[in-house]
Amino acid sequence: MVDKMLRSIISALLKAAAAASFLCLSLLSPVLIPPLYAGAALDSLNEITAPAESPVVPWPPEPPAAGPAASVSAARALNVYFISVGQGDSEYIELPNGKNALIDGGPSKSTGSLLAQFLARHNVTKIDYVVLSHPHTDHYTGLNYVFSNFTVGNFYDTRMDNLGSAADNALRDRIRGLGVNVSYPAPGDALDWDPDVQAKVFNSCPVSTQSFSGQAVNNCSIVIKAAYQRSSVLFAGDIENEVESALVSKYGGELQADALKVAHHGSSTSSGEAFLAAVKPCDAYISAGAGNNYNLPAAAVLARLWAAGATVHQTDMDGTQEFSIGASPSPAGQALAFMR
Ligand SMILES: [Zn+2]
User: Fold this and answer.
1) Can you give the pTM of this predicted structure?
2) Ligand 1 centroid to 90 CA: how many Å?
3) Domains in the chain, ordered, with CATH?
């Protein structure tokens, strides 16, 4: 309890410091206004705070225009859900063009799993793009459910064979048997998901390799940055420090993202200072199971994320999290980005 209070206090202090230095102005709302970058912060802040001219409002108010224009603008958001799937990873993405993507499937293939419940609630009937970040059970098991219950258009895989498991290859064989388009993106590749979204691969293992080592398997994780309008989300899979360092050397500031799916469930062998300094996340999302056996997220990682100025969201404590770019304000006028 004391730990929790301390964490809240430290988080609040660091958030205040970050806000004061305009590091994460998109915290104000990546939704109600176009997301801001630090460089544009002062001008944009003036825009926000400048007194607006009184709009001329007809009375009685006219009903909102019906028809295609309204539905088109409603669909123009990029919505990312960090799904609470227990100890594992699964992220669902609604693309502005109406297509959808799923990165990983969490640890359960049960029809009553948390992933199954989420997809049902969101009326998902088909998935255009499914990504397996890397072949560990907490990422691929739930994809068995997905491929059994949904039509999938494309499957993106990394060419790592986890020798500690046979079930990953059984799933892959099954997917190939379904006639799904399978591809193995290489670092630097762009994923053709939506002409308005830049989805770039920063890490993967595009050449066949095998290992018993959990670390080696983690380091083959497909890492994707999805950028839309002036905001972005980086999905870091389970990469560990050595790959993070390589990415910083290779891509530097290109790694910058407003939201970060924290690598490896907040494990201390990931989320190094240099990596976080390059990403500069305003919002950090950790997917971990409540009371998990690994004591994740690690306290050291939380401290590093807070020190980097990020607001930390945890699926184990806060449930499924949403980050939206370009959405319309909700009826209550609140930012959807932080809807729980
Ligand atoms: Zn994992």
Assistant:
1) 0.79
2) 10
3) 71-338 (3.60.15.10)
